[in-house]
Amino acid sequence: MKFVSRAEWGAQPPKQDWAYVESTLGVKVHYEGTEVPADLVNHHEWCAGRVRDIQAAHMANLSEGWIDVAYNAIICPHSYVFEGRGLHHETGANGNQPLNRAHYGICGMVGSSGLTQPTDALLGGLRDAIEWLQQEGGAGPEIKGHRDGYATDCPGDPLYAWVQAGAPRPGGGGARPGGGGGVVGGGGSGSSSAPPWPGEDLSLRDPMLHDDNVRRWQQRMADRGWSITVDGWYGQQSRSVCEQFQQDSTAHGWPLVVDGVVGPATWRASWERPVS
Ligand SMILES: [Zn+2]
Ligand SMILES: [Zn+2]
């Protein structure tokens, strides 16, 4: 686990001592619920400052009366686990005191706009934090979302789908989040697991690339509703569709480099990004 202690991220001390909890039924997952910059995936150097801002906002929230950042941990898109209230301290995030006593609360750095899709690294970090709380904090096996038992959208559909799938560690043994259904892509609205990366960039070149990988990607884009001829030739039209898809993805919280080349990230997004 890539752990960042309170001292390392520059936490303020809590306003008063945390309430001790010997054990909990498990862990509830949260998200930020606001706009998170889509570009955050490329800027881990922003993450500690974001955690400080979240703590400051919580401690300034007089209606909630929080003594500290509400979460036991905050996990960034680069898989770092920022210590919040930490082990054996009651969370303030779950909605009311019985809910706070029953489960720890951890927050993934995705929002309701901008960056809305958890990276694999974020899911891995959430998994790390859950196991840390289970192994050292007396957390039981339950893994739930904030919306379980409380009226809220939190943790958003993509993270909630991952929670409902059992919060699988991404990548391990091919266990993509959400299994075969690609549910992490957001409610299963047309998304599915990508086929294996074919190992070659699909790009406009001379002589023109023509093979079954191009055909497969074109068929996928046609299935997604793009106007594209499925002929196996990566020509101007494919390049243009690719660029538009990359721009559209970036604008919808799934950042891709806009270069008109189907590389590994664009290949994966072509299948796993929800159809919008
Ligand atoms: Zn929440
Ligand atoms: Zn980060």
Automatic annotation (TrEMBL):
Residue ranges of domain Peptidoglycan recognition protein family in the record: 1-150
Cited Pfam families: Amidase_2, PG_binding_1
BP-aspect Gene Ontology terms: peptidoglycan catabolic process
Gene Ontology molecular function, alphabetical: N-acetylmuramoyl-L-alanine amidase activity; zinc ion binding
Biased composition (Gly residues): 169-190
Span of the signal peptide: none
InterPro entries hit by this protein: Amidase/PGRP_sf, Amidase_domain, Peptidoglycan-bd-like, PGBD-like_sf, PGBDSf, PGRP, PGRP_domain_met/bac
Span list, region Disordered: 165-206
Domain of life of the organism encoding this protein: Bacteria
CDD domains: PGRP
Similarity annotation: Belongs to the N-acetylmuramoyl-L-alanine amidase 2 family.
Protein name: N-acetylmuramoyl-L-alanine amidase
